[in-house]
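Support reply, case 0932

Customer input (verbatim):
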Amino acid sequence: MGLRDDSIIFLLGAGASVDAGLKHAKQMTEDIETKVLNNGELSKYRDLYYFLKSSIIYQKGLSGHFDNDGTNIEDLMNVLSELNLKHQNTLYPFIGSWNVHLSKVSGKDFENAEELEKQIRKQLFNWINVRSYDEAQYFSNFEKFADELGSPIRIFTLNYDLCVERAVNPENIELGFDEKRNWEWSRFEPNENVNTKIYLYKLHGSIDWQRDEKNSHLLTKCDSPQEKSDLIFGTTAKLSSRDPYLFYVHEFRKYSLQEPLRLIVTIGYSFSDEYLNSLIRQAILSNDNAVVLSVSPIAKEKVDIERARIAAKVGVDVGKIVVQNFTAKEFLSNKLSLENLSKIITNESDTPF
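Our regenerated output:
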């Protein structure tokens, strides 16, 4: 069977936007650590940072993860988000009893943890709020691929930036907002009466989204990036009852479990999101014909190592993983075609399979 609209989905990670001039997770982590450790603007949270980083590494070790990844900004924000739920977290009454040092470094009523999260969110806004998205034009090749496919494509992204929507024709992309700029789930339903080529699901929010907490938590798309934009971190937030996040995860699960699925194409994704990995695993294990294509700049001599790493992260046989050694710009500009992707599902790719 050849590729068609229900046989392929895309998942974008932070690496997909690097060619557009945005930082990837490792660079963000290094930037934060520099500001904390080198008497920078976050140095007052040094003790808290030391505690959080060592605790994250310790927890990973307990789970058998002894790789060289250490900890990154996603791990840090996941933990801070959980801590700052405070009394809303069911484990809150026990936290002080678990580790006295946490109570010491997090401040009264976790005020240091709350402030550190706010400061990192501020840094995140500065990283993503680029002056120009001219360098992101390579994302427009998604439109060309949809034309070649002859049907709309569905792109799920973990990124908060505006690379995809600024690169493509606004008339050809569905972002999920109605004429009043309010979020509406039904806009992701197939509709033959519109010219949609791309359905974009922003799994963790967007820098230009704002939520009205006083008006039924109404989510609105703004003209420009907002400092208090609606962004989430971590599995708990993703699975909360608040839309669009729960809806987006449901959509990823729905389209990944379709019988015609042949390819899950990840671009710049590090496979560090355990919940998404579990959904990918479920899709691959339930479908003998489905494979994962990971696109990232990996040295040729390390391709097999990368395939094994991804297979272990997802929990599938290494034969279900294909790695192509390209940056996002190289892949979208030169390799995103029916010919190239069809070779993968027919085992004719020159990439080890």
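We compared this against your earlier run and they match. Two observations from our side: Residues 14 and 24 are 5 Å apart (CA to CA). The first strand starts at residue 8 and ends at 12. Please reopen the case if you see a mismatch on your end.
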